[in-house]
TrEMBL record, chain A:
<feature type="region of interest" description="Disordered">
    <location>
        <begin position="405"/>
        <end position="427"/>
    </location>
</feature>
<dbReference type="GO" id="GO:0005886">
    <property type="term" value="C:plasma membrane"/>
</dbReference>
<feature type="transmembrane region" description="Helical">
    <location>
        <begin position="110"/>
        <end position="134"/>
    </location>
</feature>
<dbReference type="InterPro" id="IPR043428">
    <property type="entry name" value="LivM-like"/>
</dbReference>
<feature type="transmembrane region" description="Helical">
    <location>
        <begin position="219"/>
        <end position="236"/>
    </location>
</feature>
<keyword id="KW-0472">Membrane</keyword>
<keyword id="KW-1003">Cell membrane</keyword>
<feature type="transmembrane region" description="Helical">
    <location>
        <begin position="46"/>
        <end position="70"/>
    </location>
</feature>
<keyword id="KW-1133">Transmembrane helix</keyword>
<dbReference type="GO" id="GO:0015658">
    <property type="term" value="F:branched-chain amino acid transmembrane transporter activity"/>
</dbReference>
<dbReference type="InterPro" id="IPR001851">
    <property type="entry name" value="ABC_transp_permease"/>
</dbReference>
<keyword id="KW-0812">Transmembrane</keyword>
<feature type="transmembrane region" description="Helical">
    <location>
        <begin position="273"/>
        <end position="291"/>
    </location>
</feature>
<feature type="transmembrane region" description="Helical">
    <location>
        <begin position="370"/>
        <end position="394"/>
    </location>
</feature>
<feature type="transmembrane region" description="Helical">
    <location>
        <begin position="17"/>
        <end position="40"/>
    </location>
</feature>
<feature type="transmembrane region" description="Helical">
    <location>
        <begin position="303"/>
        <end position="336"/>
    </location>
</feature>
<feature type="compositionally biased region" description="Polar residues">
    <location>
        <begin position="408"/>
        <end position="419"/>
    </location>
</feature>
Amino acid sequence: MSTVDTVRDRLDALPDVGLVVGFIASIWAVMLVLAIAVGGANWANLAAGFIGSVTVLIGGYAILALALNLQWGYTGLFNIGIAGFMAVGAYTTAVLTAPTDPAAGAVPGLGLPLWVGLIGGMVMAAIVGGLAALPALRLKADYLAIVTVAFSEIIRLVVNWSGLAEFSLFGVPVGTGGATGISFKSANDVAATLINGVGQPLVTAAEGVGVSGPNLANLTYGILLLLVVAGSYWVLARITNSPFGRVLKAIREDETVTQSLGKDTRQFKIKTFMIGCALMGLAGVLFRGQAGYISPQQFRPTITFYVFAALIIGGSGSNTGSIVGAATFSGLLFYLPARLGENVSLGGTRAPGNIVDAVAGFASLDPLPLLAYTISNVSTLRFVLIGVVLIYIIQNQPDGLLGHRNEPATSVSLDRPQSGSGGEADE
Amino acid sequence: MGIAEFARDGRVVMGDRPGAAVVAAVSGFLLLDLVAKLAGTTVFFLGTRLLGGSLTVGSLLSMVVDGLLVGLAVGLAGIGLSMTYSILDFANFAHGDTVTVGAFLGWVAAYITAGLGTGAPIAELFMLNSGRQLSTVSTFAPVLLGLVVAGVGSIGIVLLIDRLTYRPMRDTDNISLLIASIGVALALRYLIAFVFGTQTSGVASGGLRVTVFSMISVTDNEITLLVVSLLLMLGVHLLLQRTKLGKAMRAMADNEDLARVTGIPTERVIRLTWILGGGLAGVGGYLLVLESGTISFNFGWILLLLIFAAVIVGGIGSIYGAMAGGILIGLVDSLALIWLPSGLTRASAFLVLIVVLLLRPSGIFGGVSTA
């Protein structure tokens, strides 16, 4: 039995909640160890900073992976326009909640409360998703992929366009801010209000051990985001365990059979696509627009592929797997290498400015320059690692960590009972 | 064909294919607008400008030339994408980064050979930041050498990638292969960033400017792009039509099992597909940098969607389609400037891609595979 199978058996033995909590807790533990190792006297503040950032990343990618899992893992819709739908949600929220009297040089909005903006963003992302899905769902999976990625680039180019930077909507001045971006009501403020209100004793206690206010606020925000993840998980679990969800799984297995059973599969696909896009829109605000500022740069197609990496690592088809995959991807592959690279130093060896000088040292049998160069560029190399992990998983473990739990479309098991070797057992 | 018949055909199109009718109406309007703009007249309707504006023939021609040049390089790169799509049956998202790899290998070779003897430190030459600008006229031999290195180097890289990544998964479904190619794309792009950094370097600029028909002004580098890409396209055409290998490729694109039964060594054909496709992608990338003058670690990735657009518009699997689609998408990308603000021209190329996929998924030249 390979190590992966052993790991998988262990993972299976745990209940889902325990699995996710345990996973995130162990990533926190890794961050804590790192902070203690490199932080010196300042370790508590550093640990809060690391854990806060990693939690926000896990939360953001988990929402996105859950949404993608509904579309791809359950229904087989290969959507690689995630960045575009995130942008639709984030920009709608931004336009709705940006202040009506902005600072000089900033773009005005409608000044509505944040919760209105969030709902508006989700609704808009769902509508745009529905419009995109309407014609695109007739296409084969790989064509759908290309249409969605082209669509997401069109959305990014449109919000980036200076012509929409500031315009008048029925006489009210609004805008996207063009390439410079737009500031709006920050979701961070919710966390800040929370810790400055009911959490005041906690702040005092944290400051006692040296944790700064902003770090604590960020950590609080990360935990709030995990609550949103839990909410999304609950909604998606309800959906996928309902008769509606069973049809989705049936579409993934064989669309023609589902159609011949009298299901209007197009309707189901469009609805699923819209629900997924609404969640992506929400993640667009809460994750990319955490600090109350977004710009078109944040919605490049690359983020779409990171979400795919997260889902594939976790195993598409499993909601729990999506969260575990998001935690593995963002904690261990995305965040940890970058922090390691920043904080590991090689004695006195300064990193060379370019690869030629680094390799030149190697010629005189001194590997230190190359090593130092590698460490100083680890934030670039982690993407190589992500790519290699993606290839490895798709070649050797296409089910990811938990994808083997891919729920069948039937409510009862259709596996044939194992019969003894040779002939039918009951004859 | 009589007018009545023509009108009836028109009605059939309107009824059966409303999408096609809309596309025809929009292109008709744009064409009318272009004519009005060239004539320098403006048509007003209810107080708003309906048609026209001003545009000189000269600026139209220079846009056409720009579009044509980019389109040729995109078409060259698209041939490989189209071939892997038809023969290996998956959308290769790493193709854009193959373009980048080829361009970097070629330019490093060209830069180092051009810089040898000038006293510039080797590190600066390798990192492409000595500030020197190459051109076909002033540094012919290094540019030519770079072209060869770009082709050969990218062939080596794609064969290595195929051996490591795609060959162990020949029998898997096309979505798994697509995802693997996304992994390859990430790894390749950031390896380039690791070696060459993430800055944009200026490496080439035209050494000689020629004015043709006293209206169009082109540089020597642009002429090189034109000549080399047309020659390579002709070469691909001859290879596919005149050699046994070409016939084998076309057979495999048509039906892989049948090809294997007839004794075509499929694994060898696949290898040759990579060689041809990878080499052309590398050369295409090298030529694009020669034309645009700048190179950065993600230019191929950004170009990828444009290459996809070219391949799909021309009809996936068709090599001539990829060439024609490349030119068409290049022209759309450049001519859109007549009607759209400069920030949105790229979006119009993607819009053409989506419209073609929705209305005519087999491409505008029909679904002929690799012939």
